[in-house]
Amino acid sequence: MQISDIETQLEELRLGATAAIATAESPEKLEELRINYLGKKGQVSKILGGMGKLSPEERPKVGAIANKVKQTLQTNLDEKRTSLQVAEIAALLQAETLDVTMPGVYRPQGKIHPLNSLIDKALDIFVGLGYTVATGPEMETDYYNFEALNTPPDHPARDMQDTFYLPDGNLMRTHTSSVQIRYMEKHQPPIRVIAPGRVYRRDTVDATHAAVFHQIELLAVDERLRFSDLKGTIKEFLRQMFGDLPIRFRASYFPFTEPSAEVDLQWNGRWLEVLGCGMVDPNVFKAMGYDPEKYTGFAAGFGVERFAMVLHQIDDIRRVYASDLRFLQQF
Ligand code: DAH
Questions:
Q1: What average pLDDT does the segment 164-189 reach?
Q2: Which fold has domain 114-328?
């Protein structure tokens, strides 16, 4: 073995290793190369193993060359490792770039049904006027729906409403006025109460009639309440609901109020009936055990669908229940 042989081997190794390092594509591959060339059992060590056959004078010379080769390869490895890392970070940054000019993702949003939002609005107005919200059952007895409301069995006013009777003699309430009775049973005057709810009528369904619809009932009982209080309350409510529109009170009849009135609202040049109301009939107070000489009261009831149809210019009540998104998304 000649010193020149070892030098040649080292030079060939340096060339081959440099090329391999330059084309390595990953840190793992680089580590493999490092072990292969510079490891304890690597190729440089193997070549140096042949040094034993050299003379003592030649050995340091070869050792110096070998060290130089080792250093060069180590430097190449380090530089390549750094450049691979830089490339990796650059690729990551590129992949994670946020393009703020991309169009957003459209997620359809749910909203409150027009009937519910109208009920909410009406309740808000009355709560603002000092009223409390009350509810009652949709299945009722004859007593709460009719009798306690001054509508005995033979009363002609029962013909005004076609009632769904149940086999056990109970019925589906035809109006929310039943809640007046349930509330008065449990409370003493002064009373300010507002009661929203579903009501049922055996009506033939058409553009303006539904078998199930919604009402909001109003009841105030106190000493010295007068018809002017009723008028003022209704006026203020309608003003907040519809804005400043002409309204008129028209004499009417309900068994549970005396006097009674219906209220019309001028909307798009036409008078529309929007609610019934009146001073609570003394007979209703007597049934509740209230002294009609001491207490007076007023009551009103209105149909929510009717309000919604006027407010939103809906042509057919059935649209309100159809759950057609093309309709509902307009609100
Ligand atoms: N209950 C009546 C109806 O369904 C509406 C009504 C009228 C309610 C006059 C009242 C009232 O409280 O005083 O047609």
A1: 96
A2: BirA Bifunctional Protein; domain 2 (3.30.930)
Q: Is 278 in the pocket of ligand 1 (CB under 6 A)?
A: yes
Residues 138, 41: Cα–Cα separation, whole Å = 91
Residue showing tokens 């130089």 = 68
Q: Parse the chain into domains and list their residue ranges.
A: 3-96, 114-328
Q: What is the pLDDT of residue 235?
A: 96
- Please report, rounded to a whole number, the percentage of residues in the chain having pLDDT higher than 70: 98
Residue 245 DSSP class: -
**Mean per-residue pLDDT over the chain, rounded:** 92
Q: CA–CA separation, 25 vs 22, rounded Å?
A: 9
**Inter-residue contact 264 to 270 (CB < 8 Å):** no
β-partners of residue 248 are: 264
For position 16, what pLDDT does the model report? Answer: 87
Q: State pLDDT tens for residues 298-329.
A: 999 999 999 999 889 899 999 999 989 899 98
Closest CA to 130 of 209, 217, 53, 192: 192
User: Tell me, what's the pLDDT at 51?
Assistant: 78
Stated pTM of the model: 0.70
Q: Is 277 in the pocket of ligand 1 (CB under 6 A)?
A: yes
Model confidence pLDDT, tens digit, residues 80-99: 899 989 988 999 998 888 88
Instruction: Compute the distance between CA of residue 174 and CA of residue 164 in angstroms, rounded to an integer.
Output: 8
Minimal-distance CA residue to ligand 1 atom 3: 175
Nearest ligand 1 atom, CA 303: 4
Ligand 1 pocket test, pick from 199, 254, 307 with the greatest ligand atom count within 8 Å of Cβ, gives 254
